[in-house]
Amino acid sequence: MKKKLAAMTLVAAMAVSMFAGCGSSTGNSSSAKKSGSGDSGSGEIVDLTLWASENDQDLMKTLTDKFAAENSGTKFNITIGKLSEADAKDTVLKDPTAAADVFSFASDQIYDLVDAGVLQPVQDEDKKTIESEEIESSVTAATVDDTLYAYPATADNGFFLYYDKNVIPDADAAQWDTILADCEKAGKQIGMVFESGYYNASFFYGAGFTTARNDDGSTTLDWNGTSSSGIKGVDVAQSMVDIAKNKSFMAIKDGDSANQIASGKLAAIVSGTWDANAVQEQFGDGYAATSIPTYTCNGQQVDMASSSGYKFWGVNKNSKNVGWAMKLAMFLINKDSQMERFKAGAAGPANKEDMASSDVQNNIAVSAILQQNAKKGVVQMVTQTYWDNTATFGAKIVKGNPDNEDLQKLLDDLVTACAQKSE
To answer: What is the model's pTM?
Structure first.
């Protein structure tokens, strides 16, 4: 994910805490008061720690240099550490006082971070700017109980279908059945993660099933019943088993998509913009993308719906320089920074002006996620009980239900387990 402007020398790399990797530091003059605007003339060095994904380390170094250059009256020591956005909540909550001043996280984690009292609310003036410049859905997702707690950075946290049109004609990319048949002919496979509720929910969401996050830490699912569209949950689960058993299907572990793309075995993969560069390199002139395909469910074609979401920057309420941390977060989501992030890694911006630009609209991957979310995208708000139990459920399904367990019981057990309160 990427961002903005130029210059400034980085001073002294420091080891980040036990949670993050090493980082770089930026240099220039004075510390901000904890609740102040960030302006100070004391001559002290402002220490800030920024945690971002491994892929964004170079970008963050560039952007923190530029932040320091824009605030040249202050001297900064900014340490950049590595943190998977998928694991941000767990890492930060291990010890919020030792966590970074500013960190990147996925939108579905906001409730847990707010409940733990970790996030510094966005100041009113910055809130007005964000509401004016960022797309409405991203602001809504960053808001809890009418308070804006996070800084929207991207609006592309969802998935869609990449395919090699030299193997799979455009018309065939619309259905799992035709994709699997084309892959079989070519000796290739289509890959998808099943062992994650982020991905496997797409079969149920598309069929009209729902999830809901509860205040007690539980998640309500209706997957063991009949959806609003008249489709039974057991039929959805059976369709997933049928796909998993097909020899042209590749079960991908969460986080291992890049390795499988590079293997050359795939002609299609359900993934997101984070894999755009790897897929384009592998598929070459066959590189194409579209919304995720329909699947056969009890004799009919049923849509899938991606779990759409956003990437946010959060400011740690425990920061000793919270004023400067908020200024840095605002800098990281400004128009120029979001466009730089897009250019560096095809991250779809949340900024309205950036999103409407021809560069973004002409990008194959970003256009596909916009198409998918417009067709069927669900903002997924769930709790930890959901993640643990849908992963277990997915692990059984992706193996083709080898023990021949009753699918109705599997779904009943899943719904019951997710309904338990979090510890």
So the answer is: 0.71
